[in-house]
Every structure is written in structure tokens, then in C-alpha cells.
Amino acid sequence: MTDLLVSGGRVLRPDRTVERADILLDQDGGEILAVDDPGELGGDDELDADGGLVIPGLVNAHTHVAMTLLRGYADDKPLDRWLQEDIWPVEAELTAEDIRVGAELGLVEMLKSGTTALSDMYFHVEEIADAVEQAGLRAVLGYTAVTVGKDDEGARADLEESLSVARDLDGAADGRIRTTFQPHSLTTVGESYLREYVPQAVEDGLAIHLHANETTDEVDPLVDEHGVRPLEYADDIGLLGEDTFLAHCVHVDDSEIELLADRDTGVVHCPASNMKLASGMAPVQELLDAGVTVGLGTDGAASNNDLDMFDEMRDAAMIGKLAADDASAVDAGTVVEMATKHGAELLGFDSGRIEAGANADLAVLELNSPHLTPAHDLVSHLAYAARGSDVRHTVCDGQVLMRDSAVTVFDEAAVRDRASDHARALIERATDDE
């Protein structure tokens, strides 16, 4: 067994307290062996956390990682126009190689900002899985099925692929990859297909991830057609349950919040994307008060425009207070738990906390910066002041993936160059006929 000692720093404990401690990691088994007073532990290798804060690795519970290639391409439009006029036409030109390169760029960005686990929805999932395996991160992956605009054969092929990817890739990368069945949303997958394929996913024991209630345009048509709220419709189909987590849930009413709590269905809040697309303000404090597990996600870089979970924490805290009209709502400690413990719970990973027995997933922040001085409350700093660029080291599964701000698993400069080349070529292909 090879041990790694993370020494000299202050540690964020599961009860939100911060204390000086050393952490011993089992690099072979990928778990935390012990957290003890400074100087009490020893290891085969050492990672210097002196002057830093050791936190659980951040969990980006909803993203589209390869959309880094579309960062800054289509801005300042509402969701429907943004998708139909800009995103979907370009995505139709994506190749497997594009997605691999875009995924590598996104994973480097996450590594550099302390994210150690993600949940991704996209296409050519095998390419994303290969990139995740090389990166050393944890991920929940799936193929996103859409039936609108397709004939029956195409619609079924999409859903069959979502099922097969979820079945075949689960447990890849030595168990660091889990999977979900992914109907895109309640309005982009037809009812007959949902009623046929969701039971198959449930029977196979597959987790399910989809977009829900992101905009009023995803609510009103379902209410008009079915006479019930979208999540009541989803529940009737069998979509809600403890193995389902929903992205967004901006426009949910009291009855839907109660339904989510009753079904133990989780929610991923994506505040930056919701603000940028003017989708609305999710009632996060109401969801939390009802007992719903709420994680945090960046969504894709095309609607954010970065994958920095520290930005997302700050946005979640700020917009949460506005939505609740209460300055005490969605407080700093809660936001940090959303980005760590709660996200890990949604994804099914034993991560999100620093204690013996948990996955050895953590990040070390450099505290010696003007914007983190003075250190009255480091939990407050994590939510309101810290930046992804403050991360010094990133560790996942006991392996050091970034040491002293240098990514060890990718050639960062080469990844950036390839991504820039592929992005230019992609946009040229997509706009040639305009």
C-alpha cells in the first residue's frame, strides 16, 4: 500500500469547522485513512498544504463538458432561441474527435479549479469516458436522448443508445465512472417513448438524469396538454425516485417540491446558466427546507461561460437570497455542502467530506491572497470570495492530478491549442451554408 500525507494545512471538517490537521490517503485503495493532529501521521509521499485550506473535492453535478468548444459563441439569448438558432445547428456538426478535445479542455478547467467529480450529459460518450479515465476524475456519464424532430426509427435509436451506454459504461475507469439513463427533458422526448423506455431503465436499476422545469416554456405546454404540473406528469411515467436527479427545477410549485421530497428525488441547481438565459430563480431554500437534496452544477460552458464551481457557489448564495427575499437564505455553509456533500450524494459517490473511510478526493486552496484576507471565516470565504485560481493541488482517488497549480495528467498548453483549432473548424463547418 502506498500512502500520501497531505500536511501543514487547515482542514474543512464535515461539521463545517476548520482546524489544523494532516490527512493520510491510501493511494492504492483511493480512500482517506486518517485525519489527525499535525505531526501525528506519516506517509510514503507528501503533499504540502502549508498555508492552505484542504477541502473536499468539488462536485459539478450537471454539465455538458464538451461544450467548452462553444464558450462565447452564442450569448445573450433566451433558452429556446439560443438552442434552436445557435447550439443545435452547431452540435449537428460535432465529430467524436471534437467532443474528445472539448471534454479534455473542460476537464483541465475543472482540475485547475478543484473539481474532482462531475455529471455529464452529451453525445459520443465513449470519448468523454476515455478523457475522464485519463484525467483521473470521477464522473457520472450518459448519452442524452432527444426524440423531437426525429422519425420513429431515429427516436428509438437515440433512446436505445442512452440505455446501452448506461448499461455498458457503468463501472469503467476502475469504478470511477457511473452512468445514467438520460431522456433530455419532458418536452424534448415524447410521452409514448418515455412510457416505453423509462420502465426498462428502472428495471435495469439505472439511475436517471434529465432537465426539468428550466423555463416556463417547459411548464406551460405540459400543463395545457396533460392538465397536471410537469413533475406530476413525470411521476406518473415513473421518472421520479431516489435514483433520479433533475437539473434546474427553476419553475416548481409547492406541490412539486413536496413530490420531490416524497420521492427522494434530487435537484441540481445551475444558477449562472439560469441567470444568463433569464430562465428564472429556483426556489432553492424552499427545496432545502422540504428536505430535497440539492447539488450544484455549472451547466455547459456555452451558457455559463466557465466551469468554476467557486463562481457557482457565490451565484447560488446570492440568487438564493433574492429568490427567498431573505438575506439569511442559502447561507455560506449550505452552499459549500451543495458543492461537495450533496453533489456527491446525488452522483452516488462516497465523496464530499474529509474523514476516514471517504473517497480520497480533495483540493487545497492557497489562502495567501488579498481577496482571502483577513480570515475571519473560511467557510464564508469559500462561498463568497474564493476563486478557482486559488486552488494549489487537486487530488482524486488518492492520486495527485494537479500539484502546485500544474496539471499532471494532461499537457495543458497542447489541450488548449487543440481545442482552439477544433472550435474554429467546427464553427466554419456549421456556418458554411449561411
In short:
With 434 residues, this protein is of the alpha/beta class. The protein is 39% helix and 21% strand.
Notes on the structure:
This protein has helices spanning 79-91, 96-112, 125-135, 152-169, 191-203, 220-226, 230-237, 254-263, 271-276, 284-289, 309-324, 332-347, 378-384, 412-431; strands at 3-7, 10-12, 18-20, 22-26, 31-36, 45-48, 52-56, 58-63, 115-120, 138-141, 144-145, 177-183, 207-212, 244-248, 266-269, 294-296, 362-366, 391-396, 399-403, 406-407. With 434 residues, it is an alpha/beta fold. Strands 8, 9, 10, 11, 12, 13, 14, 15 and 16 form a nine-stranded parallel sheet that branches. Helix 3 links the parallel strand 9 and strand 10 (138-141). Helix 4 runs parallel beside helix 5 and helix 12 (332-347) packs across helix 13. The chain is globular and about 65 Å long. The N and C termini lie far apart (59 Å).
Q: What is the mean predicted local confidence, pLDDT?
A: 97
Strand content: 15-25%
Euclidean distance between termini CA atoms = 59 Å
Task: Give the helix/strand class.
Answer: alpha/beta
Radius of gyration: 21 Å
Low-confidence stretches: none
Count of helical stretches? 14
Strand segment tally: 20
Tell me, what's the shape? Answer: globular
Topology:
Blueprint: E1 3-7, E2 10-12, E3 18-20, E4 22-26, E5 31-36, E6 45-48, E7 52-56, E8 58-63, H1 79-91, H2 96-112, E9 115-120, H3 125-135, E10 138-141, E11 144-145, H4 152-169, E12 177-183, H5 191-203, E13 207-212, H6 220-226, H7 230-237, E14 244-248, H8 254-263, E15 266-269, H9 271-276, H10 284-289, E16 294-296, H11 309-324, H12 332-347, E17 362-366, H13 378-384, E18 391-396, E19 399-403, E20 406-407, H14 412-431
Helix pairs in contact: 2-3, 2-14, 4-5, 11-12, 12-13
